[in-house]
Amino acid sequence: MIRLEIELDEAAFGTTKDIQVDTAVVCNTCNGEGAAPGTSAQTCDMCRGRGEVSQVTRSFLGQVMTSRPCPQCQGFGTVVPTPCPECAGDGRVRSRRTLTVKIPAGVDNGTRIQLAGEGEVGPGGGPAGDLYVEIHELPHAMFQRRGDDLHCTVTLPMTAAALGTKVPLETLDGMEEVDIRPGTQSGQSIPLHTRGITHLRGGGRGDLIVHVEVTTPTKLDVEQERLLRELAKLRGEERPMGTFQPGQQGLFSRLKDAFNGR
Q1: Is residue 162 helix, strand or coil?
Q2: H or E segment and range at residue 13
Q3: How far apart are alpha carbons 16 and 105 in whole angstroms?
Q4: What pTM was estimated for this model as a whole?
Q5: C-alpha span between 107 and 6 (Å, rounded)
């Protein structure tokens, strides 16, 4: 199995990649037969070409016959008196090849792509197996992937959240403006539909979710503080009482309530 690293946009839209693999291929000198040029394999005289030998043993139940691979030909049924000097009679050699892999849109970490017949050639020039390529998606500087949706966070000063603004964002599809409506609260999310990852099976795409984080200034100069106090006075918020809500119960409190039947 080969591990292949790809970028987020390549996973979203699909791509093609060239990979190099070291596998066993048919020996060109003997064409997979394992015998030196001008010679050929011969029928094994121990198993007479059957590839296995039988043995009869006696027990209190009578005679028991068992079969096992022939120790002389290793189950092939033939032996090579003069092995090929290139592959030492194995019929295959190691070789580095370049393969082009088509990555479908929507793949995720752990997705495996099967390349039929591109794996190891069997001993004696037997049929080649399959090669599997496992996808590893590299982390993105801006977006976090959750399924087929993408998530990111935009940090805004409280004035921009209160008044509203437009924030440019470089998405996978190019530059777009995120509309921050007046009065946006910290923790709100703004969906950009069909700007996420292409669904691997079926049409359409996921969404891009922009999470808003509103910051409060920690240092104010004299004029800024005066203006904020004036705003608080205009809004009747000079001495706000605040609103309290019940906090979340801890694990042991929830277990206690469950046992008490609440």
Answers
A1: helix
A2: helix 8-13
A3: 10
A4: 0.75
A5: 10
